[in-house]
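Possible regression after last week's pipeline update?

I re-ran a chain I had predicted before the update to compare outputs. Posting the input and the new output here so someone can diff against the archived version. Not blocking, just want to make sure nothing changed silently.
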Amino acid sequence: MGLLSLIAGIFKPAAELIDNVHTSSEEKLKLRNALAQIESDMTIKTLELEGKVLELQGKLAEAASNQAVAEATSESWLVRNYRAMIITSMFVLIICQSFGLLKMDLPEVFWQIFAASFGVMSVAPSIAKAGNGILKDVINAVIKKK
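New output (post-update):
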């Protein structure tokens, strides 16, 4: 909750300033109460926004999961295998370059895309299996707090 500590850090100097103001203790109490109310309102809004972010992340994860299921259960061979075909094609280009069969070097962006794609395709299924339940539990807990 870095954002909440940031908000508290913003209001701490103002609270100290109120304590140092030379006014009656009744006026100081009113100022402290007003400041506490503002801080409370900001904290509530921040928590609401963080809850909405978690909710949207959950919807995004669910949409990605639905897409993966739709691709895996598709009747079309191409739809089921296009991601693996792309990675295989990129790997063939790498092999061709290493044997000097390409007339040009592969650009840096190719290597970045290959690394990201290969990493996602090899690690994402494990993360999805392990983290999907955890993400849903967190989202449900946040929604229940509202």
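Follow-up from reviewer: compared with the archived run. The helical segments are 2-20, 25-72, 77-98, 108-145. Marking as no regression found.
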